[in-house]
Amino acid sequence: MNGTFTEATVSMTSPELEPAITLEQVCKKRREHTVGPINWSIPRGYVTALVGENGTGKSTLIHMLLRTLYPDSGRITWLGESCEGELPIHIRQQIAYVAELPMLEENRSTAKQAGAFRSQWYPNWNQGRFEQLLEQLKVPDDVRLAKLSKGQQQKFVFAAALATSPKLLLLDEPSSGLDPFAWKDMLAALHGEMENGDVTILITTHRMEEVKRLADYVALMYEGQICGMKEKDELYQQWKEVWLGPVDDQFVLDDLQELPGILDWERKPDGSVRVHTSQAAALQQIAEENDIPVQVNGLEWEELLSCWVNDYRIHLGEAKA
Ligand SMILES: Nc1ncnc2c1ncn2[C@@H]1O[C@H](COP(=O)(O)OP(=O)(O)OP(=O)(O)O)[C@@H](O)[C@H]1O
């Protein structure tokens, strides 16, 4: 990966990271709830995965970044420039977008013709890369796009996006519909992109394997808000599962439960306790001092994300109280 930043945690607007995109107080009212206010900087030169449950506002956010949707309030800055109305063409030409479901205006064209058309709009169009990706992804270039399968159309969009040599690549669940082989090729192409160019990638995904393999940073969205952004490896270490006991002494247990960092505390019928905590080392030490059997385990990605949401909700509750 390019860039030299090594610090484990970054805040949502870390001053150490150069931002590719900055959002300040960005809000958009949707049918059921409001997305925002969002204050967040997307670090330049890295892959950031935006994760969160269905309907929380990830696609809305991406559309605001593309200016296909205007925020009701707030300000967005792209590569150091902000604007009120439409995105200036020189910025738009540096942004490529792959949506979850390809909606192709060029349905009557072949991949070759559609590429030739797009190449006129993008000054940094890389024809060699486009052809190489079509070949690698096995997309026929002489068949009308309308006659291709959804997966093949998605691969075309992906190849065309990378061929623009973008500075900002916005990927909204790009792998839905891709077979496992194409998915592997897509990951390899994205890794190649990061190694060779000064590109910033924002990807929304529900596939934790994608986060694992691609992301440098992970941002969590919950109920329209960005809860935070963490360096991926630091996220792995943030919360642990701790098994205590079995323990008979309720007083000791009550004391342990008061320790900071505890998110979930589940007493089992056999007297053991399963805990999710951000302070596993402290809990382990005190348990051992009290001769309580203790075991510390890492968590799966899905569990880590639900710990993150729980932690955010606890802090939100505390902030409101
Ligand atoms: N065109 C629209 N008009 C009004 N509201 C919309 C529109 N599209 C989405 N919404 C609403 O905006 C909210 C956020 O939707 P959005 O598609 O951004 O979520 P998401 O996080 O991308 O979800 P998913 O993970 O399912 O793709 C939802 O409440 C949704 O119902």
UniProtKB/TrEMBL annotation:
ABC transporter domain ranges (all copies): 12-248
What PANTHER family does this protein's entry cite? ABC TRANSPORTER ATP-BINDING PROTEIN YTRB (PTHR43158:SF10), SKFA PEPTIDE EXPORT ATP-BINDING PROTEIN SKFE (PTHR43158)
Q: Per the UniProt entry, what species is this protein from, by scientific name?
A: Paenibacillus wenxiniae
Please give the SUPFAM superfamilies that the UniProt record associates with this protein: P-loop containing nucleoside triphosphate hydrolases
Designated name of the protein: ABC transporter ATP-binding protein
Entry-linked Pfam families: ABC_tran
* InterPro entries in UniProt: AAA+_ATPase, ABC_transporter-like_ATP-bd, ABC_transporter-like_CS, P-loop_NTPase
| The entry's keywords | ATP-binding, Nucleotide-binding
Q: Which GO terms describe its molecular function?
A: ATP binding
The domain of life for this entry's organism is Bacteria
